[in-house]
Amino acid sequence: MTEIHTDGPESIGDVQPLDFLVVAPHPDDAEIGMGGTIAKMIRQGMRVGILDLTSGEPTPHGSETIRRAETIRATEILNLTWRGNAGLVNRELQHTLEARKRIASYFRMLRPRWVFAPYFHDAHPDHVVATELIEAARFWSKLSKTDMPGERFHPERTFYFFCIHLRLAVQPSWIVDISETMDQKLESIRAYESQFVVGRPTEPPTMLDRIETDGAYFGNLIARRYGEPFATKEPLALTSLRDVF
Ligand SMILES: [Zn+2]
Hints:
Layout: E1 20-24, H1 29-43, E2 48-54, H2 64-78, E3 82-88, H3 97-110, E4 114-118, H4 125-140, E5 157-161, E6 174-177, H5 182-190, H6 193-196, H7 207-221, E7 227-231
Parallel strand pairs: 1-2, 1-4, 2-3, 4-5
Antiparallel strand pairs: 5-7, 6-7
Helix pairs in contact: 1-5, 2-5, 3-4, 5-7
Bound molecules: zinc ion (ZN).
């Protein structure tokens, strides 16, 4: 049985460090923004976690119980290494020192090499605040002489995924070919039935049609069937040009 860790960062215990942790304001943002890349990297042997900051509820057709069950289903579809919920309040996400400390504590306990945050331009206040919180928490997680749990730790990079409530023609820093995991991505999004199926228009383009069209658009930019865009503020470092196409 898949478990969503909800007991706070102090109780995480000894886990092998993650390759990367995706931090999402609401359960379903990580799947929409980068479900294909998550699935692909897990297939390639990486250890990948998602930390949802809030329950994402209330919503018109969801409830805490329904959304939790849907999150478990999506977690199983992606075959995630770890998933947790930070228990911050949906719709009321604020950049408090307490919230910053909580997220930094997750970084110290999970020790992800990279952290993925929502893209910094968005209309949803929770998303904008989440990104600020994650950037500040990344810095705080390396502090010494603090009462935060775990050892001081600094994730090497913060990257940005796109799950935005703005119609932007974004210019990504790079695009991952997700042709082989697009089906898995769509299935993980479909798991959130209360968000994307119940009460939604059934005439095309449905919400899922639009996500597929976006995937095809970014795939087209790299001459592949499907792609997922990412951004970075710092230059991307490569050990080899071999994987660039
Ligand atoms: Zn969201």
